[in-house]
């Protein structure tokens, strides 16, 4: 039952000047990060996460959600302007968007990308607001045994659907589990697995892990590319196209409405993909684009059509809200971004999960309002400042790499003023680079790292309740048995069918001439 | 004769290299590392300590090691075991040196915070690396470095994070 007093309090918190300013800053930074090829929302959120511990909860959430939503949209700006998607999520936007730009209809392409992004985002946020509390009610009836199997199921799905090799996904999850055991036993607080290092007794914190795995590893990869590909540096600088001037023809309301079918497809597919663990905005965009193309062959999507841009952008932005559903309803992050937002909540002393609706109702309502409000800022920033962001896409990587690396070092140190966090960041940067080279997905590692203590606690609590009887502890109810059977079936089916590869094949519907596009990277 | 022998040796070397670059080769190297970790845990006293709830302290770390070994085992023998990932194939000695060198450089810069102070170290790193990577003109690299140092110092001030000023500032202040 919704308590209006809590809702009103949440409105007051969100519409306070401080929170609004942080949401705006988040969107401003996010669109920029999205527009710059080589950067994506996850490393940006990783870099900003340590800075949120001094902010209030709504301000911290506003900043990070703003970066996320802005980042997912921002990729379209460079995709349309330069045929270089700022993020992998916008790879399919290149197919039609850049052709429209070449035909002098760049302004229309930018407008439809913005409007379809915001339309799908708002709709999927409403789905999130309705679905999350409903599922949380169900989750509240779960005991430790059911919770354990749910975690195992989520990790299995993540391992199977992230990356393109089931064993590699599961190996990443196992590494995450092992790293989570470093520190102290979660039940008795006795130190363990510290390799004799006293500074590891407190365990590994999420912030150095994600800064290392995302920001440092991504920049190391970029650094190697720069050194290897010296010829690229001597290339002529890209020029911001004239579509950003006042002369371009804007999108009409009729043209916006003509894309309703593609926006609907994008919203539906994107929302569904967003809820599933291990997929993400890239798969959402590719699937929506592929389905829209197959459902309307007469529209000739791929030849520079507004409908193609609408399907792609609606597909990726519609994943933004629903990706939080597993986190809020079950306390299980289904994507890296959800894990990072869960980390931000943890820094603020709030444990994400079904009990959050009981214990922190104001925080939940504030989060829902922020999800919706950030779309308004996205609309404003995208509508009036796309030209400025297009200039960011031409920031030379030799300037970008050292700045991001030094920000990573600063973020690691600022988190706890601790030297060891910096050393951990560098170590995880190396691990992240190795994982990129060996195609090990990062999402299962991060999410298992977060879920492992919860799984251990659930197992040991179930054992204590059942006086050490393993069978009774693991299969205490019909639901636990059903979840366990489902886990086994999912593992066998996904391992045998390599479903993730099939999803990718289905999703990889490219334009007829196969222009542009990055390889989709699910789970990121 | 000697040329063909040299060619044979090179192809053997390439063959060896491709074995180590395949999923199976990398999995074998990982297996050695993970087994060493597992062995060190097994030989530790803490791992066998029984807790109040009857659980062994080393139980969950060993589950982690066991799962890693299982996944590595699958990687070594599944149908993609001989596959060489394109990214792995493109790894050269240069890329390894660049990655390790980059990390060492970051470590050195972090130590320089206490010697030179935060702002000069950051300016030096950003401008120096941008120039080393071929960015020109010099003044923009220097301005970006100084701007980054200024922005981060401002954030640190707002967040109340104490940053090392180094002896340079002390000298300036007399």
Keyphrases for this structure?
heterodimer, A: 524 residues, mainly alpha, two-stranded antiparallel ribbon, 2 strands, 1% strand, globular, disordered C terminus, B: 174 residues, 0% strand, flat
Question: In words, what does this structure look like?
Answer:
The complex is a heterodimer of chains A (524) and B (174). By secondary structure, chain A is mainly alpha-helical. In chain A, helix 4 (57-82) packs antiparallel against helix 6 (106-139) and helix 9 (206-228) crosses helix 19. Chain A is globular and about 70 Å long. Chain A contains 23 helices and two strands. Chain B is mainly alpha-helical and 174 residues long. Chain B folds into two domains: 2-89, no CATH class; 93-172, no CATH class. Chain B contains eight helices and no strands. Chain B has helices spanning 2-21, 23-42, 59-77, 86-89, 93-116, 118-132, 138-159, 166-172. In chain B, helix 5 runs antiparallel to helix 6 (118-132). Chain B is flat and about 60 Å long. The chains are: A mainly alpha (524), B mainly alpha (174). Chains A and B meet through helix 8, strand 2, helix 9, helix 18 and helix 19 of A and helix 2, helix 3, helix 5, helix 6 and helix 7 of B.
Summarize the structure.
Helix content of chain A is 70%, strand content 1%.
- The amount of helix of chain B comes to over 70%
The chain-level structural class of chain B is mainly alpha
Q: Number of domains in the coordinates of chain A?
A: 1
Q: How many beta-strand segments of chain A?
A: 2
Order of helices and strands of chain A: HHHHHHHHEEHHHHHHHHHHHHHHH
Structural class of chain A: mainly alpha
Work out the helicity level of chain A.
55-70%
Please provide the ordered H/E string of secondary-structure elements of chain B: HHHHHHHH
Give the strand line-up of the largest sheet of chain A.
1-2
Estimated share of beta-strand residues of chain A? under 5%
Q: Report the span from N to C terminus of chain B.
A: 75 Å
Largest interface comes to: A-B, 64 and 66 residues
User: Quick one: overall form of chain A?
Assistant: globular
Uncertain spans of chain A, ≥5 residues at pLDDT below 50?
509-524
């Amino acid at each position: 039952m919704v308590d209006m007093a809590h809702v009103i309090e949440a409105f007051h918190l969100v519409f306070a000047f401080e929170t609004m300013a942080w949401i705006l800053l988040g969107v401003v930074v996010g669109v920029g990060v999205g527009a710059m090829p080589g950067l994506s929302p996850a490393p940006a959120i990783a870099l900003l996460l340590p800075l949120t511990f001094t902010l209030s909860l709504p301000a911290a959430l506003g900043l990070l959600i703003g970066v996320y939503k802005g980042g997912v949209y921002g990729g379209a700006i460079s995709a349309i302007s330069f045929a270089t998607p700022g993020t992998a999520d916008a790879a399919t936007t290149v197919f039609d968007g850049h052709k429209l730009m070449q035909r002098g209809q760049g302004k229309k392409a930018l407008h439809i990308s913005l409007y379809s992004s915001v339309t799908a985002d708002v709709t999927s946020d409403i789905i999130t607001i309705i679905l999350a509390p409903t599922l949380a009610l169900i989750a509240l009836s779960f005991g430790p045994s059911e919770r354990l199997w749910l975690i195992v199921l989520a990790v299995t799905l993540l391992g199977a659907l992230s990356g393109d090799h089931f064993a590699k996904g599961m190996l990443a999850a196992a590494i995450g589990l092992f790293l989570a055991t470093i520190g102290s036993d979660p039940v008795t607080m006795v130190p363990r697995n510290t390799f004799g290092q006293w500074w590891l007794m407190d365990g590994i914190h999420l912030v150095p892990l994600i800064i290392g795995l995302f920001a440092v590893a991504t920049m190391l990869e970029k650094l190697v590319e720069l050194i290897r590909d010296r010829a690229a540096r001597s290339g002529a600088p890209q020029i911001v196209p004239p579509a950003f001037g006042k002369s371009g023809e804007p999108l009409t309301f009729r043209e916006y409405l003509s894309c309703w079918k593609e926006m609907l497809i994008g919203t539906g597919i994107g929302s569904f993909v967003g809820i599933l663990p291990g997929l993400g905005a890239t798969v959402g965009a590719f699937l929506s684009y592929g389905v829209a193309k197959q459902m309307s062959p007469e529209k000739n999507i791929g030849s520079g059509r507004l409908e193609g841009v609408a399907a792609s952008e609606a597909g990726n932005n519609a994943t933004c809200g629903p990706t939080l559903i597993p986190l809020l309803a079950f306390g299980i992050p289904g994507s890296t971004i959800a894990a990072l937002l869960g980390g931000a909540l943890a820094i603020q002393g709030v444990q994400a999960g079904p009990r959050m609706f009981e214990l922190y109702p104001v925080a939940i309502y504030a989060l829902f309002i922020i999800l919706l409000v950030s779309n308004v800022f996205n609309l404003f920033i995208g509508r009036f400042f796309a030209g400025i962001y297009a200039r960011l896409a031409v920031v030379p990587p030799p300037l970008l790499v050292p700045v991001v690396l030094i920000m990573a070092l600063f973020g690691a140190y600022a988190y706890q003023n601790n030297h060891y966090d910096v050393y951990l960041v560098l170590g995880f940067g190396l691990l992240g680079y190795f994982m990129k080279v060996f195609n090990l997905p990062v999402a299962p590692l991060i999410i298992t790292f977060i879920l492992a203590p919860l799984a251990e606690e659930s197992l040991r609590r179930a054992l204590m309740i059942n006086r050490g009887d393993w069978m009774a502890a693991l299969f205490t109810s019909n639901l636990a048995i059903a979840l366990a059977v489902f886990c086994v079936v999912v593992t066998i089916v996904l391992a045998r069918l390599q479903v993730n590869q099939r999803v990718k094949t289905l999703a990889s519907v490219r334009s007829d001439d196969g222009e542009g596009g990055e390889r989709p990277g699910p789970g990121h | 004769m000697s040329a063909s022998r040299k060619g044979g040796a090179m192809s053997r070397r390439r063959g060896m290299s491709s074995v180590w670059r395949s999923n199976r080769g990398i999995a074998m190297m990982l297996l050695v590392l993970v087994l060493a970790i597992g062995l060190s845990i097994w030989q530790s006293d803490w791992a066998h300590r029984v807790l109040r709830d009857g659980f062994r302290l080393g139980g969950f770390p060993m589950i982690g090691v066991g799962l890693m070994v299982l996944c590595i085992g699958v990687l070594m023998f599944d149908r993609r075991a001989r596959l060489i990932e394109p990214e792995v194939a493109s790894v050269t000695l240069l890329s390894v040196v660049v990655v390790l060198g980059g990390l060492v450089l970051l470590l050195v810069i972090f130590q320089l915070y206490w010697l030179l102070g935060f702002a000069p170290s950051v300016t030096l790193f950003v401008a120096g690396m941008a120039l080393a990577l071929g960015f020109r003109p010099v003044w923009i690299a220097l301005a970006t470095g100084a701007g980054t140092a200024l922005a981060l110092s401002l954030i640190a001030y707002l967040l109340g994070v104490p940053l090392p000023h180094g002896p340079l500032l002390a000298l300036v202040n007399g």
